[in-house]
Design goal:
With 63 residues, the protein is mostly helical. It has one domain. The chain starts with a helix and ends with a helix.
Amino acid sequence: MSDWLMPELCKKYKDVYYVVTDATAEDHEASVDGTHPSDYGYQLWAKSIEKPILKILAQYGIR
C-alpha cells in the first residue's frame, strides 16, 4: 500500500493506524539477501514499532 493511501485511511477509519518503521542497520546485517530481514532485522523492526504500538494500546487502556 502506498505511503499516501494509508494516512488517508487512518483519517477515514477510527481504529486504523499507520506505524512507520525505522528498522535499518548501518552495517547492512539486518537482511539476509538485501530484501528479506534476518533475525537481527526482525529484532530492529520490533524495536522500531515498540513505542508507537504501546502508545496506541494505551489509548485503549491496555498496558
